[in-house]
Sequence to fold (425 residues):
Amino acid sequence: MAKNIQAIRGMNDYLPEETAFWQRVEGTLKDVLASYGYSEIRLPIVEQTPLFQRAIGEVTDVVEKEMYSFADRNGDSLTLRPEGTAGCVRAGIEHGLLYNQEQRLWYVGPMFRYERPQKGRYRQFHQMGAEVFGQQGPDVDAELILLTARWWRALGIQEHVALELNSIGSLEARARYREALVAFLRQHEDRLDEDCRRRMHTNPMRVLDTKNPDIQALLNDAPVLTDYLDEDSQAHFSGLCELLDLAGIPYTVNPRLVRGLDYYNRTVFEWVTTRLGSQGTVCGGGRYDGLVEQLGGRATPAVGFAMGLERLVLLLVQAVNPDFAAAARVDAYLVAAGDGVQREALRLAEQLRDALPSLRLMTNYGGGSFKKQFGRADKHGARVALVLGESEAAAGQVVVKDLATGNQETLAQSDVAARLASILG
Ligand code: ATP
Ligand code: MG
Fold:
């Protein structure tokens, strides 16, 4: 027999029990986005490779070793998107959404990175993110953070995430800082690994982003970017902190927070949890005022974030232990047995869906004894069983059985919708 073909390592299937839960979570997240007036943008999963090289930066983990790039049949280099911001900016420029306008956008969808698969780290994963264009004040940075804080409250995980915040200043401030950092790194070159030694020359700030714990320890003595900030960035940052204080959002200023992508300036932030091991960053973002111009548009201030849905779901499972099955349950199960009854069942089910659009009603197919069919109703978690046998069908009636109380009554089919509505609340 031929060997079964399996899914690609690090690319997950999401089975029905999970998708029902995911839909509920995504529904909550989307409701919050709508409550701030943000609109959805849907973008292609594949873009031209140079878009990501230019936006994310050549000397970053993502571009150096994580992109899924391939030549299409024309020989053009294409890449499965590793993140959403680059495509969003590309589309904004292409459709004239940015210059002299204001946009508050969100997206959700799969992202692809060639990483070592482990808990909370996959090769295909999903992000939900938001991007705001055309606003330069710290108030919009604060709004994005308040929005994410509202997400955590809506999901009941506010106790399990903490906000880290930093400002990485202007391009000029970072250039001054880079000199100081490189001087420090040179002194300790023997303690750097190969990656960091190379980055010391190509993009020294990337060294701060290393996951090597020995080098992280060394970096405790390195100069900090905060001491090199320009005045405007300082004012922006203290403005943001003030707004967060006013809103009662606790945060820690982490001077080592730089984030893994090159396009950020000024505000950077992460929501972290201690409950997912080294995959502890659930959500990260910041300002990227230079990116639109860098990708060929007119200079437009911008700020955004991306949240990893797999890590969020893992955290939800650990922290609030949600009832996965509940999301997948049906309200009612239509038991049908007897000659010519299946046809009647189909008609009745459609009639009930017309009357109660939010009713989750499953119809039995393929016959089976009443006992078997009740077993199926149970398996799907139905609260109510509707029973249609030959005599009920002939009389235009149906038996309504409340499976929680055991109460059972025979009703005219025209009265069933009202009865269901009252049992199900
Ligand atoms: P990490 O430091 O964990 O590699 P990152 O800085 O590369 O994260 P971002 O590019 O900021 O991550 O992406 C935003 C969010 O997307 C992360 O905080 C995380 O929740 C999620 N994410 C990133 N990479 C992965 C992945 N390979 N698998 C699952 N989720 C991911
Ligand atoms: Mg990463």
Notes: The chain has three domains: 16-169+229-323, 175-222, 328-424. Residues 131 and 304 are 4 Å apart (CA to CA). Residues 175-222 form one domain. The chain is about 40% helix and 20% strand.
